Amino acid sequence: YLDYLRTKVGLDYSEMDEKNSEKSIEDFENEKVTESEIDATENLSADFNLDFGDLYFPEDEEESIKNQIEASLNSGKHIIFTGPPGTGKTELAEKVAEEMEDKDENVTGHQLTTATSDWSTFDTVGGYRPKNGEEGLEFKPGHILRRFKDDEEDLKNEALVIDEINRADIDKAFGQL
Questions:
Q1: Is 158 helix (H, G, I), strand (E, B) or coil?
Q2: So what's the pLDDT on residue 16?
Q3: What is the C-alpha to C-alpha distance for residues 37 and 34, in angstroms, rounded to an integer?
Q4: d(Cα 137, Cα 122) in Å, to the nearest integer?
Q5: Which of 26, 75, 77, 137 sits between 20 and 30 A of 41, alpha carbons compared?
Q6: Rounded distance between C-alpha atoms, residue 107 and residue 98, angstroms
Q7: What angle do CA 153, 159, 161 make, to 5 degrees?
Q8: How far is residue 79's CA from residue 107's CA, in Å, rounded to a whole number?
Q9: Around 165, how many Cα atoms within 13 Å sit in the side-chain half-sphere?
C-alpha cells in the first residue's frame, strides 16, 4: 500500500517521517512481526454452552437465540444485540465473549468498552498523534487494534464488546472499517 502511494499518487512520506519521527517508512516495512500461536486460518467452530443465568426470554426464544449466536460466530459475523434498556444485552454479550474464550483456543480474552458520541476513528482504530512533550508524531492504536497487539508487542486475539454502540456516530467512529 505504501509503495502504491509513492508510485501512483506521488506521495512520499519519508520526508514527513524524518521531520516528525525517528522511524521511517522503511523501518516500518522492515519491522518483523513476532510469530504467534494464534492460527488465523482456523475457523471458529465452537459448540457453545451459553448459560443465560437470570436473563429472561419469551417462551422457546432462549434456544433460538443461542442458535443464532452460534451460527453468527461460526460464520465469522459480528453480533449486535438490540432491545430496550435493562434487558441484559451487555450481560449477554459478555457471556458470549467469555464462552468464546473457553471454547476457542485462538481467542485470548475480551474487552468491554462503552461507546460515546465523541468517538472518531482515532478512538476506535487508531491514528497518528503528536508525541507528548516531543516533536513528531507517533501511532496510537485504538480499541480495535489493541485487541490484536498490546504495548509489550505480544500478539493476541481478543473479542471486543462495545456497549451502547448506538451512542457513537457510526460514520465518524468506524469510517471505512
A1: strand
A2: 44
A3: 10
A4: 14
A5: 26
A6: 9
A7: 125
A8: 16
A9: 19
Which residue is associated with the grid cell 449466536? 69
Task: Please give the angle made by the CA atoms of 149, 163 and 96, to the nearest 5 degrees.
Answer: 75
C-alpha cell at 162: 462495545
Task: Provide the CA 156 distance to its chain's centre, in angstroms.
Answer: 11
CA–CA gap between residue 24 and residue 7 (Å, rounded): 17
How far from each other are the two terminal CA atoms of the chain, in whole angstroms?
17
pLDDT at 59 over 60: yes
Cα–Cα dist 147/2, whole Å: 24
What pTM did the predictor assign? 0.67
Question: In terms of Cα–Cα distance, which of 21, 24, 30, 25 is closest to 5?
Answer: 25
pLDDT at 32 over 60: no
Q: Counting beta carbons within 10 angstroms of the beta carbon of residue 148, is it exposed (0 to 12), middle (13 to 18) or buried (19 or more)?
A: middle
pLDDT tens track for 126-167:
999 888 888 889 899 999 999 988 776 678 889 999 999 999
- Cβ pair 25, 17 in contact under 8 A: yes
C-alpha cell, 24: 521511517
